[in-house]
Amino acid sequence: MALEWVVLGYAAAAEAIMVILLTMPGLDGLRKGLVAVTRNLLKPFLSIVPFCLFLLMDIYWKYETMPSCDGDSCTPSEHLRHQKSMMKSQRNALLIAAALVFYWILFSVTSLVVQIVQLNQRIERLKNKD
């Protein structure tokens, strides 16, 4: 199961790097190529959404089937293992949320950059007509 979380972490990191590069001022020369690459990667990155839903269902299933450790019914080591499992589930849920939010931000920023480029081209054509 750890490989799935590593893949999701790398995908979220790649999305974050692309968002940073798209929004960083001063990279106008690279922005055209970066927008093209990002637009081509948006469709494959869409597979993150069902993947995150699958992993979220996995977290829920683990939470529902986890033995409860209340009061004096557990040894200290079992109690510690229970707490570690809860912390890992919370960390993984945050990773899922981050991956989904970064995908949404990347999609939005890319579409806004494309609209800005199109509007700039229209302004230049209108200036050239006059």
Order of helices and strands: HHHH
Oligomeric description of these chains? single chain
According to DSSP, the number of beta strands is 0
Structural class: mainly alpha
**Taking all residues together, what is the mean pLDDT?**
88
Counting H and I runs of at least 4 residues, what is the number of helices? 4
Form type? rod-shaped
Give Rg in angstroms. Answer: 22 Å
Helical amount = over 70%
The biggest beta sheet is recorded as: none
Question: How would you sum up this structure in a few lines?
Answer:
The protein is mainly alpha-helical and 130 residues long.
Describe this structure in words.
The protein has 130 residues and is mainly α. Helices cover 86% and strands 0% of the residues. It has four helices and no strands. The longest helix has 54 residues, at 76-129. The radius of gyration is 22 Å and the shape is rod-shaped. It starts with a helix and ends with a helix.
Q: Features of this protein?
A:
single chain; 130 residues; mainly alpha; 4 helices; 0% strand; rod-shaped
Q: How is this fold's topology laid out?
A:
Blueprint: H1 2-23, H2 28-45, H3 48-65, H4 76-129
Helix pairs in contact: 1-2, 1-4, 2-4, 3-4
